[in-house]
Amino acid sequence: MNNAIAGFSKLSKEEKINWIATEYFTSPTDAIATIKQYWNNDESLQKLHDEFIENTITNFYLPMGIAPNFLINENYYSVPMVIEESSVVAAAAKSAKFWSTRGGFKATVLNSEKIGQVHFLYKGDVDKLEQFFKQTKSKFYTETDSITKNMQKRGGGILDIELRNKTKELENYFQLHATFETKDSMGANFINSCLEQFAKTLKEEAQNFSDFSDDEKDIQVVMSILSNYVPNCIVRAEVSCRVEELAEKNINNPQEFAEKFVQAVKIAEIEPFRAVTHNKGIMNGVDAVVLATGNDFRAVEAGVHAYASRSGKYSSLSHAKIENGIFTFWMEMPLALGTVGGLTSLHPLVKMALQILGKPSSHQLMQIVAVTGLAQNFAALRSLTTTGIQEGHMKMHINNILNQFETSDEERKTIKKHFENKTISHASVVSFIENLRK
Ligand code: MEV
């Protein structure tokens, strides 16, 4: 195959579709029909979607579902979720209902600081650079005045700017490490605009700093960009109840269940292979709400997994304990989310999702998202530590065979006991029954 093309972006939408259809499909007419089947009849709505990205040919549908009955800080929420995995919304809803009768979820935003950095190279005397930074610091604020004015009116802005010496790790490498409060916006554009102005100011002011030699004046800015690692933008979500209150259909012995659940979490705390899958279950809930509310799930994913590795070893985001007869299950995670700006006022379904959530502030959305992640984690651990996915399969399979052989209650008991912890195959069960009946 050799399907390279020059100037694809300059083609019209029809031309792009024709090129794709003829290059990659034996029946271009069918391919074009499939692509167009997903176009919206409303031309202005389709144009809106076309313009979200470059080279749009069609829309890619994902289901949007609702997980109702989330009791969070005494308020009920119906949580919109966008996801393709079949069991996720059902699991969230089941977990939400379970905890709604046990005091609900408690969620708190611990802090909401965002970070951005200007990465630059300086070849010279470090003391002079520090002196220069001290003298220039106020200019970084005044020269970003026009960018920060509106954000300041909303209570946000630049929190601090530090000079960081990274030369021990990389020759001549320094940073302007800046922290921001961006209120209800995710703040990526705001932060990046501030950083690009910091970089300009840095270079210009270095030229005017008389203590610098000509070489020292030549500061080289490598790049200016926000960080998606936000370890000081943390939300905590928690559930707790008396151990005996955990009793339910598949939880006959709540003490045993609670202990096994805590053990499962401890395994994820110390074993990275398990932690990744454990946290993936959390992200099933988190990403689905992040997507539904038009936020950047790649940024959230990157930041969350960095946070899960902050000790130097990848670990569980959630934790659980039993203390004085109380079962507590909680999680802290970094979430940089916005409820204004970006797609929030553009995508009709994002607007709808935010309306369903009661037009939350970014802090409230952080709480809802973290709670959905915790609920998802609870649902996964509950089934893994009780019925288990495999056990469910095996039970179904063995029942079919037992029915086929019209086994008595007595025979069933013996056979089930024998296969309790064994892999079931049709042949092994048949052979066991035949032996039993000899
Ligand atoms: C599947 O999408 C998620 C789980 O694997 C999570 C877990 O194992 O905890 C069930």
From TrEMBL:
<keyword id="KW-0520">NAD</keyword>
<dbReference type="Pfam" id="PF00368">
    <property type="entry name" value="HMG-CoA_red"/>
</dbReference>
<dbReference type="GO" id="GO:0015936">
    <property type="term" value="P:coenzyme A metabolic process"/>
</dbReference>
<dbReference type="InterPro" id="IPR004553">
    <property type="entry name" value="HMG_CoA_Rdtase_bac-typ"/>
</dbReference>
<dbReference type="GO" id="GO:0004420">
    <property type="term" value="F:hydroxymethylglutaryl-CoA reductase (NADPH) activity"/>
</dbReference>
<comment type="pathway">
    <text>Metabolic intermediate metabolism; (R)-mevalonate degradation; (S)-3-hydroxy-3-methylglutaryl-CoA from (R)-mevalonate: step 1/1.</text>
</comment>
<dbReference type="InterPro" id="IPR009023">
    <property type="entry name" value="HMG_CoA_Rdtase_NAD(P)-bd_sf"/>
</dbReference>
<comment type="similarity">
    <text>Belongs to the HMG-CoA reductase family.</text>
</comment>
<dbReference type="InterPro" id="IPR023076">
    <property type="entry name" value="HMG_CoA_Rdtase_CS"/>
</dbReference>
<dbReference type="InterPro" id="IPR002202">
    <property type="entry name" value="HMG_CoA_Rdtase"/>
</dbReference>
<dbReference type="InterPro" id="IPR023074">
    <property type="entry name" value="HMG_CoA_Rdtase_cat_sf"/>
</dbReference>
<dbReference type="InterPro" id="IPR009029">
    <property type="entry name" value="HMG_CoA_Rdtase_sub-bd_dom_sf"/>
</dbReference>
<dbReference type="GO" id="GO:0140643">
    <property type="term" value="F:hydroxymethylglutaryl-CoA reductase (NADH) activity"/>
</dbReference>
<protein>
    <recommendedName>
        <fullName>3-hydroxy-3-methylglutaryl coenzyme A reductase</fullName>
        <ecNumber>1.1.1.88</ecNumber>
    </recommendedName>
</protein>
<keyword id="KW-0560">Oxidoreductase</keyword>
